[in-house]
Design a protein that fits this description.
CATH superfamily: Hotdog Thioesterase
Low-confidence stretches: none
Structural class: alpha+beta
CATH class: Alpha Beta
Largest sheet: 7 strands, antiparallel
CATH architecture: Roll
Strand content: 35-45%
Shape: globular
CATH topology: Thiol Ester Dehydrase, Chain A
Helix content: 10-25%
Length: 141
Amino acid sequence: MTTSETAERLTQDGWRQHAPKGFTGLVGPLWSRANLDLLTFGVIVDEQHLNPAGVVHGGMLTTLLDQVLSTAAWQVSGRQPCVTVQFDTQFLSSVKAGVFVEARAEVVKTTRELVFTRGELTVSTDRVATGSAVLKILRAR
């Protein structure tokens, strides 16, 4: 399936394409979809996402996972800016070009200052990475 065919299918399935600014924009284009209480992002993997071994760079996957986890924290904190203070990633398998990587996040716990999250990256029904993060809520003073 070509990138344009994949993009067309995603649009039909309720996904919206975004072009985030800054560093996250280097990962995309990013796709998003509301999925009940679960936040979902995704990326169609292309050549620019690959490392010299011909598989998706771990930094790209980590960035995608961090983006979905931090956005979940942002949402639950009332759209307050949040910064990652701790992040763990477990890579379960490699990812090749031409596939759609889906990132899902959930909030595990929220305190006055911190949000605890966990998430996963999947290709089709295969889990390729999992992770968790603790994010600090930056409140206006």
